[in-house]
């Protein structure tokens, strides 16, 4: 039994708006899909507390076929233990971090989705793939390999910089 899901008009408008922005930013491109994953909007926190939406692709079917990336994610409790000794803490959040990582062309077709305006595929690492968090953490670890592990911590798209002294903290941020 296949259940047809109806998308409200206001959601369709938001979906098309976000698809248009991703297309403009080179995050997706038009495609002739071999696979199609459904999309949906989920509420998210906004800076100004207005209603905001995140466009998500439901990759559950795709994820069943992917080989897991075993790169370890940091443990939150280990990071929190280190924060307790700091007097100065800065958190840098990379905007749409996953979308900064190019997706290998051979993997792009499995990321296809369709909306009213057409079919698209990701050219950048999408949210929702089971391999995305570990792959992103690997890339961040490579990019920030020179940072001092006692002074800065990476967790996904957040870089946390700590110190006991303001002068050292500012230097570490630079």
Automatic annotation (TrEMBL):
One of its GO terms (biological process) is DNA biosynthetic process. Pfam families: RVT_1 (PF00078). Residues 23-174 form the Reverse transcriptase domain. It comes from the Eukaryota. PROSITE patterns: RT_POL. This is Retrovirus-related Pol polyprotein from transposon. It comes from Anoplophora glabripennis. The lineage of its organism: Eukaryota, Metazoa, Ecdysozoa, Arthropoda, Hexapoda. The gene is POL4.
């Amino acid at each position: 039994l296949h259940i047809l899901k109806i998308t409200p008009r206001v959601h369709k408008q938001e979906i098309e708006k976000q698809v248009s922005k991703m297309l403009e930013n080179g995050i997706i491109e038009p495609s002739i899909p071999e696979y199609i994953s459904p999309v949906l909007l989920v509420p998210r926190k906004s800076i100004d507390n207005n209603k905001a939406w995140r466009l998500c692709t439901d990759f559950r079917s795709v994820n069943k076929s992917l080989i897991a990336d075993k790169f370890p994610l940091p443990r939150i409790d280990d990071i929190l233990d280190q924060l307790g000794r700091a007097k100065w803490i800065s958190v840098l959040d990379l905007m749409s971090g996953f979308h900064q990582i190019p997706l290998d062309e051979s993997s792009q077709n499995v990321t296809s989705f369709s909306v009213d305006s057409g079919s698209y595929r990701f050219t950048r690492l999408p949210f929702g793939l089971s391999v995305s968090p570990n792959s992103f953490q690997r890339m961040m670890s490579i990019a920030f390999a020179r940072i001092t592990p006692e002074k800065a911590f990476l967790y996904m798209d957040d870089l946390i910089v700590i110190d006991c002294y303001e002068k050292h903290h500012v230097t570490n941020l630079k």
